[in-house]
Amino acid sequence: MRAPGEYSADDTVGTDMTLKRFLWTVLIGLLISAVSVPVFISEGSLHIYNRIVPDSRAADYFARQNDATWQPAVLKAADGIQLQAWFFRPAEFNRAAVLLMHGVGDTRLGMTGHLQYLLRNGYAALMPDARGHGASGGGLVTYGLKEARDTAMWAQWLNGQPGVERIYGLGESMGAGVLIESLVYHPGFRAIVAECPFSTFEDVAEYRVGSRLLPLVAWPVVRIASWYSRLRYGVDVMQASPIDALRRRQTPVLLIHGTADVNIPPQESRDLHAANPASTALWEVDGASHVAAQTAEPQEYRRRVLTWFATH
Predict the structure, then answer these.
(1) How many C-beta neighbours within 10 Å does residue 199 have?
(2) What's the predicted TM-score (pTM) here?
(3) What is the pLDDT of residue 26?
């Protein structure tokens, strides 16, 4: 029996073993997190789970409310998937049509706030579900890598509709970025409006990861997520870059961004404007959150959008 306060070599060994087990447990936990967190982020950004499919009764309702007619539109994308849309034509048609592009996780229904004032001002409107959203096919969301070509094809579809002489685009969030990226394919837009776009997917991914975790881990987490998406799906969304598409383009682009946007910061639109100041205009809406500029300044928002289209 040991006297009180007396220790043996076995006590030291036991303490060392406990410390080693703890350190190994921490290390293994960090390694698991280092792999699982980027995989979780990658899968969550590439897929839309629990999709909502728009009901055609909503199209009936908006057509009645705005003295318009509508028809379903179907497009086969370059990779063979089927894309779905609604096409509205007002009774008093000004021979111009607007392609309305929604944000990630939304559907064409998210653009009905724009549909109504456009129809009432004589514009036809095409409202697609982006690939991987709503009723459209496709299992992956690629933030413009594939959607940009889809958008250019929708623009071509619009150009072929009877009576359509001018086409424009209006997009929110991902839809805004995709519209800008579609300019690479020369879709023929007279002008576009992009609310809360990202300048590069890489920038906004690092911003979001940094705001949810720690800024210091954003770079490695985003890179691992990128490697995973390339290995698993053959897609690198880090290559999605509206700012590259916007450089040296002459299509007029009105950039709108709320100063209180914590989803995609207003610096993204500032960077886009700086990349091509000759072809872009930037309106920052004080206090507006993500894609909420129309809510914050409804009359001024509609005035600026309609004026932008009318002057081009």
Answers:
(1) 24
(2) 0.88
(3) 38
